[in-house]
Amino acid sequence: MSPTPTPSPAPVTDSVLELAPVLPVVVVDDPADAVPMARALVAGGLRAVEVTLRTAGALEAIRAIGAEVPEAVVGAGTVVSPETVDAAVTAGARFLVSPACTETLLASMRASGVPFLPGVSTASEVLALLERGVREMKFFPAEAAGGAPYLKSLAGPLPQARFCPTGGVSPANAPAYLALPNVGCVGGSWMLQADAVAAKDWDRVERLAREASGLR
Question: Which candidate among 2, 105, 143, 155 keeps its CA 20 to 30 Å from the CA of 186?
Fold first, then answer.
């Protein structure tokens, strides 16, 4: 009997926005949860997994997901410096997401060789990135910065910019964002409810992920 072939890593396009309608924003407190969590998200139809660099085990989680869940596209969030860019890519991150952007951080993300979403919250920041050839961005903190009405107002003068709004996005307001022509996906963590993760209820995570993947 022939051995079962090892799955190839899931392909990633140049666009993070095209991976899924919802980009799960994952905070990993226990690296042991990373692999079953990622498997549940992928099984529910969310193959992109953004692991935020907010915990001591985040880089370990990225390495584990990359090694054991090849069908996932694992990335790093809360990338705020060249050092975090380097650490994330070395750990195996296949895309990068930042909450904001500076010239130094933009140069580092560009040099990384992986797709990235720099964070913006104003029209001036959007225009500054467009001038530098960046068309895809994270809109953060989405609800606090004006929400779907704000992004709708940007679509007229700046139609070439596309966004992943994150921050206060929920199942209730996600459809309003996803209906906008300049929104490629939304970021959120509602499919990773704290009590479900604490109980290691990966079936529930999978169910919530499936509901999220059906929003568009």
Answer: 105
**How far apart are alpha carbons 138 and 142 in whole angstroms?**
9
> Residue written as tokens 């001036």?
124
d(CA 53, CA 75): 10
Band of pLDDT at residue 6, cut at 50, 70 and 90: very low
Annotated catalytic residue, options 83, 136, 138, 152: 138
CA 107, CA 124: separation in Å to the nearest integer?
19
How far, in Å, CA of 22 to CA of 15, rounded? 14
List 18, 50, 206, 211, catalytic entry: 50
Cβ-in-10-Å burial (0-12, 13-18, 19+) of 157 comes to exposed
C-alpha torsion 29→57→74→210, nearest 10? -10
- Is the pLDDT confidence value at 4 over 90? no
User: Hey, is 28 helix, strand or coil?
Assistant: coil
- The question of whether 138 is a catalytic residue gets the answer yes
The CB density around residue 131, as the number of other CB atoms within 10 Å, is 8
Write the burial class of residue 214 (CB in 10 Å: 0-12 exposed, 13-18 middle, 19+ buried): exposed
Q: Supply the DSSP string of 172-208, one letter for each residue.
A: TTHHHHHTSTTB--EEE-TTS-HHHHHTT-HHHHHHH
The structure's pTM equals: 0.93
Q: Of all helices (H) and strands (E), which one includes residue 117?
A: strand 116-117
Which pair of tokens denotes residue 137?
A: 């961005």
14 φ, ψ (degrees, to nearest 5) = -75, -10
